[in-house]
Amino acid sequence: MSHPLPLLPLLLLLPVVGRCQTGSQFDVCRSLRSSEAGPGWEFYACQPPQANMKEVMQIRVDPPGITCGNPPERFCTLENPYLCSDECDASSPDLSHPPQLMGDRERGGLITYWQTVTWSRYPEPLLANITLSWNKSLEVVDDIIVTFEYGRPTSMVLEKSLDKGVTWQPYQYYADDCLEAFGMSPKRVSDLAPSNLTRVICTEQYSRWVGAKEEKIVVFEVRARFGVFAGPKLINIDALYTRMETMKGLRDFFTFTNLRLRLLRPALGGTYVQRDNLLKYFYAISNIDVPARCKCNMHAAQCVLRDATLQCECDHNTSGQDCQRCSQGFKSRSWRPGSYLPLPKGTANTCEAAETAASAGDSNTAASDRPSASSDGVTDTTTITTTTTDSTTTDSTTITTTTTDSTTTDSTTDSTTDTTTITTTITDSTTIDSTTDTTITTT
Ligand SMILES: [Ca+2]
To answer: Bias category Low complexity: which stretches (predicted)?
Structure first.
């Protein structure tokens, strides 16, 4: 069947961010194995490859009129405050600085950037919000890097939402003086212990004035947080995966559907505000890198753009944007996220077929600790005693709790820590067919 919009796997669509290579672990959801009963599928926990999500983000800036150039405006720079020949003009392609230029691919060494109006209304604060939306839950896998041309803000907040922008929570505070700006003592990620890694901190590392051209980036440190468990070069990524399953709130900490930058005070050039030259104060952002992967609850190895929305290509008899429920014809109560454990292959936690529920005759659930190819086809896995809360409920619970305290109730960690591995080899070919049907045709 042809479809007006091609389903492009993100793997092909987007260049994979090269810095964080966590190996090819968990990149397939199933493989064909032969046993005495004939060929059958063996299922594995799987996750989509990472990508730079700036390519598919929606950008909104607030308040209205914050972008420069309407009407055209002259501006100066901190580096050269008395040379004010630069102009921002929204009606001119060469002189306009629209928000899209924060997420574009820059070619040929030309830096393109979004720019705000200048601080001509001082002492009224110069505030700007940048909201980045994906309409899809993502898991960040490497540092989020925001590049500021003409100086980094004196203070700003990075916020995140887990419910597509309904509620927000702080992710990290940035200021040249954390105590003065936010009443928080300054911290670095290296100050954090494994037990309080999900703490929201204020850092002074990216706000000090060192010259606009020397240091342009503001970082949300994901790599350093991963390194607390996996070692400095993320050599022991298995240790991180184990923590993701066992430590409450850890996985949610790296999950979001939206990000928001609240710019509170522009770069001042290392001195106080000079009222006689306010045209040198403004914000300009040339790039925002968001290396992440779609959250698919370990049930999909691909994530595609469908009707301009990200969608997991669900396997394991699951469906939904995040593979957060069982497909039709499968026991909805049997849904659970896949698990990284036991390493190295994890557990698929495939949804059970509804038809076979009654005939759980020779169920072989007292299986070995890890999925093995030699085990017989187990079609039904009898009782799963852990209460799996509905995924929508899980989301809303997570949102209302703040990230400053890592006591979030998380069904992922709850259900996976204390369950034994269930061998998921389904030999029934009709089951497999119906799965592939639904994943392809649901548009
Ligand atoms: Ca750009």
So the answer is: 379-420
Ligand 1 centroid, distance to 356 Cα (angstroms):
55
* Cα 57 to middle of ligand 1, angstroms: 13
User: Cα of 121 to ligand 1 centre, how many Å?
Assistant: 27
H-state helical runs in 284-410: 391-400
CB 46 within 8 A of CB 338: yes
pTM: 0.77
Distance between Cα 102 and ligand 1 center (Å): 5
- Which residues have CB under 8 Å from 131's CB, separation 6+? 59, 60, 61, 62, 165, 258, 259, 260
Distance from the alpha carbon of residue 402 to the mean position of ligand 1, in angstroms: 33
pLDDT in tens, 141-171: 999 999 999 999 999 999 999 999 999 999 9
- Distance between Cα 1 and ligand 1 center (Å): 38
pLDDT band (50, 70, 90) for residue 264: very high
Distance, CA of 397 to CA of 377 (rounded, Å): 37
